[in-house]
From TrEMBL:
Its EC number is 7.6.2.8. GO terms for cellular component: ATP-binding cassette (ABC) transporter complex. PANTHER family: METAL TRANSPORT SYSTEM ATP-BINDING PROTEIN TM_0124-RELATED, MOLYBDATE IMPORT ATP-BINDING PROTEIN MOLC. It is an enzyme of class 7 (translocase). This is Cobalamin import ATP-binding protein BtuD. It catalyses: an R-cob(III)alamin(out) + ATP + H2O = an R-cob(III)alamin(in) + ADP + phosphate + H(+). One of its GO terms (molecular function) is ATP binding.
Length: 261
């Protein structure tokens, strides 16, 4: 069964059409990266999957169930979603992470809930922050807490909007390694948006390149062609191989805007 199945989805804000007949599937074990220029509709697509925005027309299924038919708790158990900039109420880091268990908590927090939150805290090396106020953390530290909260939720589907944008190099690598490990270990899926193509290549096994509200290219690493990248980003690049891995290098001063291409 697919983790996420997006079928012929379109979406428009009152003044602008953003998504135009988008279809794709994410399977358990997939790390899917959604790529494309600023404003192309990546966050909008994640918000549609998370039912924050309602698609029209089109259908989205999570684990075989149509999201239209799920109640809020069911949806919260299935999807762990980290926004581009997460908001927290004024709690400790530990309580903010424990909040990920909310869709499961009936009357009181159980020892299992505490154990899951503690395990995630440790796996993200956040122990020393446990009793700090979350609103006193740096942007990157908060980003890690938001990711920790989503992992504590133990959902079938993880979705992150630019999970590495606030993080330094070490934390970027740590966070993508952790998400990949969780996806593999729990046989769930992660769908993320990213701007750094080389980080995307390290993270993903599947990629969607969006352009003008549509899917321009979808597939494995094979979508990373100079042609696709120049069409999607209006930038000329070369792709070199380093230690067996492709590396995308922009050609300086190569903006194609206004060129005949
Ligand atoms: N609430 C809104 N009302 C009207 N238009 C919106 C709204 N939110 C986003 N848009 C517009 O929809 C388009 C897609 O925005 P979206 O945030 O999905 O893009 P994105 O690909 O995630 O961009 P970025 O890479 O800059 O985060 C943009 O043109 C944006 O201006």
């Amino acid at each position: 069964m697919m983790s996420i199945s997006v079928n012929n989805v379109s979406f428009r804000y009152p003044t602008v059409k953003v998504l135009d007949d988008i279809s794709f599937a994410v399977e358990p074990g997939d790390c899917m990266v959604i790529l494309g220029k600023n404003g192309v509709g990546k966050s909008t697509l994640l918000k549609c999957i998370n039912r924050i925005l309602k698609v029209n027309p089109g259908d989205i299924e999570i684990g075989g169930s149509n999201i239209r038919e799920m109640d809020n708790n069911e949806l919260a158990q299935k999807i762990g979603y980290v926004l581009q900039s997460s908001q927290f109420s004024d709690t400790t880091v530990f309580d903010a992470i424990l909040l990920g268990r909310k869709p499961y908590i009936k009357w009181d927090v159980t020892s299992k809930d505490l154990e899951i939150a503690t395990d995630v805290l440790i796996s993200l090396s956040l122990q020393e922050y446990s009793m700090r106020r979350v609103n006193e953390l740096s942007g990157g530290e908060m980003q890690k807490v938001a990711i920790a909260r989503a992992l504590t939720q133990q959902p079938d589907v993880l979705m992150f909007d630019e999970p590495t944008s606030n993080l330094d190099l070490k934390n970027q690598l740590e966070v993508i390694r952790l998400i990949k490990d969780v996806v593999k270990e729990k046989h769930i899926s992660a769908t993320v948006t990213m701007h750094d193509l080389n980080l995307a290549l390290r993270f993903g096994n599947k990629f969607i390149m969006m352009k003008s509200g549509k899917i321009h290219a979808i597939g494995g690493m094979d979508v990373f062609t100079t042609d696709n990248i120049s069409k999607v980003y209006d930038v000329d690049v070369t792709i070199e191989t380093y230690n067996g891995h492709p590396v995308v290098i922009p050609l300086e001063g190569s903006s194609l805007e206004g060129s005949s291409l």
